[in-house]
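Posting here for the record, re: S-adenosylmethionine.
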Amino acid sequence: MRLTDKFGRQITDLRISVTDRCNFRCVYCRSANPENHMSSASLLTWDEYVRLARIMVPMGIRKVRVTGGEPLVRAGVEDFVAQLKSVGVEDVSMTTNGYLLAERCDRLVAAGMNRINISLDSLDRERFERITRTKTFDAVIAGIDAAQASALRPVKVNAVLVRGINDDEVEAFAEFARDRDLIMRFIEYMPLDADRSWTRESVVTGAEVLRRISARWPMVPIAHERSETARKYRFADGRGEIGLISPVSQPFCGHCSRIRMTADGKLRTCLFSKEDHDLKPFLRGGASDGEIAAEIISIVSEKEKSHRINEPDFVPPSRTMVSIGG
Ligand code: SAM
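Prediction output follows.
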């Protein structure tokens, strides 16, 4: 039985958050104040995530992205990647802040990981430190170096642009992509921050980013799969690529192929779902694989038509990005 929702969208991508803990405290994501973390007993075990993946692969899940929180802070994530590959996940990737990547990259590659996304919100050291509230700029750049020197492909670097914080760096990020021959992706700021300081005015749209980069370098559109989040462009005169992820200004819900598992075992059919669905009672209550599969099919069939960010009655979800898994 294929995982399909009532609008006919086939679900092929699963994002698994393996922790809500993070060694960064990015201003557009987390609060400066201490937050409550999920207790370790409430987190799924590696075996429980693997069991869910094993159940979902025959239902059409081909891609799994491991995320968090920061996935590299949970010990054992390399073995988890290897287990995901061994249960038949075709494409395993990770989203990381890159801080621990240089020392872990070889083990991730050996485990069979296919590709990686690294977050980098400023090329200016001091500004990077202000945004992340850490002093880790060199380590993150070393992480990007390690990824590019490894077998992981493609290497994508993600920047969330926030007006007044880092929107003056669009062209510098484009240069970074050209110099390093990598994919630089610009993500629109979404109302998922812990401080609830998101405003529509703080969003830097993909259209603005394309206009500004195209004013400097001729850009050529690249074909993309319907379900891909990014609109992609290459530089006509050289190396590098950019991707525009515009969930606020140009929602791509109509072709969404994603579902998410939170670190504590809640299945979410949309980043902005009002409710999530706890699979832990099934996993820990003796349910069979068939019963769990039936529950997942029924949850996915009710996937939301769209995220509704632009509707007048939109209310942000109670969970913030770090506790959903980005
Ligand atoms: N720790 C990892 C990292 O930094 O990439 C993975 C988790 S993080 C929550 C995943 C992605 O979500 C990052 O690229 C981050 O920049 C992005 N993100 C966090 N808060 C966001 C927000 N309010 N709007 C848009 N993207 C956000």
